[in-house]
């Protein structure tokens, strides 16, 4: 299958008349993964091109966001960043260490602070409810 008509990127190099560079890169990554799974190069390229055509048709014109990590991993990172920030590490250092923008580090810190406050408030509410329940039983 010739990739010249589809404008896709192949392991042999970029062959593009028109089309998305991101989809072309996806195609290369997918081809590499298929090759890693033992699929012959020509077949891997054909599969990746067909999938990219489907992706273009399905998502064309849309902005798509891919998170770098799972939400659990982000929460763990936010907790670590918050703890280091509380210990005095500068925001700029944290941004560099975790490979995030300064704005994103501020957001992680704010989210973690809010999460911890909500957790603390919930524990306090439970303690008060238990105290009230005990008081009601005793009086």
The geometry reads as elongated
Helix and strand composition category: mainly alpha
Count of runs of 4 or more consecutive helical residues: 5
| Helical proportion, percent range | 55-70%
Strand sequence of the main sheet, in spatial order? 1-2
- List SSEs in N-to-C order: EEHHHHH
Q: Distance N terminus to C terminus?
A: 85 Å
Number of domains: 2
What's the rounded overall pLDDT mean? Answer: 84
Number of strands: 2
Largest sheet: 2 strands, antiparallel
Radius of gyration: 25 Å
**Percent of sequence in beta strands:** under 5%
Unreliable stretches: 1-7, 14-18
Written account of the structure:
The protein is mainly α. The protein contains five helices and two strands. The chain has a two-stranded antiparallel sheet. Strand 1 and strand 2 form a beta hairpin. The longest helix is centred in the C-terminal third of the chain and has 37 residues.
């Amino acid at each position: 299958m010739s990739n010249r008509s589809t404008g896709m990127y192949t392991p042999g190099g970029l062959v593009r008349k028109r089309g998305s560079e991101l989809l072309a890169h996806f195609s290369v990554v997918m081809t590499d993964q298929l090759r890693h799974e033992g699929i012959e190069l020509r077949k891997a390229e054909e599969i990746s091109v067909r999938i990219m055509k489907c992706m273009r048709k399905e998502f064309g014109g849309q902005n798509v966001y891919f998170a770098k990590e799972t939400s659990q991993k982000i929460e763990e990172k936010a907790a670590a960043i918050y703890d280091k920030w509380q210990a005095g590490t500068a925001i700029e250092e944290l941004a560099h260490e975790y490979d995030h923008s300064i704005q994103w580090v501020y957001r992680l810190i704010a989210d973690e602070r809010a999460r911890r406050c909500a957790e603390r408030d919930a524990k306090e509410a439970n303690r008060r409810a238990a105290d009230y329940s005990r008081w009601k039983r005793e009086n």
